[in-house]
């Protein structure tokens, strides 16, 4: 069982797509293990996007990520990291297949709806970053017994 970190970015909040994106996660049978709305400060964005800090588009990403609060979700399930990356697909929505989150809902790379951890190692780091000290719920669903 794996847990991965998802962020619903400001364009998702602004466009009224929160339910649309969360329903795809639920429909895949992943479990929502924690969820909260959070206004990102510069420190957490600098840490989270350290790997693109030297890119020319970084200042625009910082501004975009602070436009509204974001929704952080811990999603749990078998192969959750890879499964969620498959649900969201390519960074650039132009390369994202239809029936994926970015393929269906995003038009350009500047506002691509969602973040999801790209490896098990990063998921662990990112979950600590967003849910530090708060713990993640452990609960079972009756429906999981048929898995
Ligand atoms: P995220 O980390 O947000 O889930 P990702 O893993 O698909 O996205 P990264 O390479 O980690 O892609 O880039 C982080 C974010 O930086 C992207 O979501 C996108 O908003 C932005 N970004 C990446 N590459 C470009 C680019 N070439 N031009 C503009 N923005 C970009
Ligand atoms: Mg990334």
Structure description:
The structure is a single chain. This protein is of the alpha+beta class and 147 residues long. 38% of the residues lie in helices and 18% in strands. The protein has seven helices and four strands; from the N terminus they run βααβααβααβα. The two termini are 12 Å apart. The mean pLDDT is 96. The protein binds adenosine-5'-triphosphate and magnesium ion (MG).
Q: Can you summarize this structure?
A:
This protein has about 150 residues and is of the alpha+beta class.
Topology:
Layout (H helix, E strand, L loop, with lengths): L1 E7 L1 H5 L3 H10 L3 E8 L3 H7 L9 H8 L4 E8 L2 H9 L12 H5 L8 E3 L3 H12 L16
Antiparallel strand pairs: 1-3, 1-4, 2-3
Bound molecules: adenosine-5'-triphosphate and magnesium ion (MG).
The site of adenosine-5'-triphosphate has 10 residues, from strand 4.
**How many individual β-strands?**
4
- Trace the largest sheet across and list its strands: 2-3-1-4
Poorly predicted residue ranges: none
Hetero ligands = adenosine-5'-triphosphate, magnesium ion
Terminal CA distance reads 12 Å
The outline comes out as globular
The amount of beta strand, in percent, is: 15-25%
């Amino acid at each position: 069982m794996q847990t991965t970190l998802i962020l619903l970015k400001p364009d998702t909040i602004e466009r009224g797509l929160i339910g649309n994106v969360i329903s795809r996660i639920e429909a895949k049978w992943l479990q929502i293990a924690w969820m909260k709305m959070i206004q990102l400060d510069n420190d957490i964005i600098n840490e989270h996007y350290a790997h693109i800090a030297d890119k020319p588009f970084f200042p625009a990403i910082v501004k975009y990520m602070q436009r509204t609060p974001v929704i952080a979700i811990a999603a749990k399930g078998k192969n959750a990291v890879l499964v969620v990356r498959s649900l969201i697909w390519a960074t650039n929505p132009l390369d994202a297949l239809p029936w994926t989150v970015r393929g269906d809902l995003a038009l350009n790379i500047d506002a691509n709806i969602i973040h999801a951890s790209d490896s098990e190692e990063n998921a662990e780091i990112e979950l600590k970053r967003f849910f530090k000290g708060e713990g993640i719920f452990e609960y079972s669903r009756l429906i999981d017994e048929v898995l």
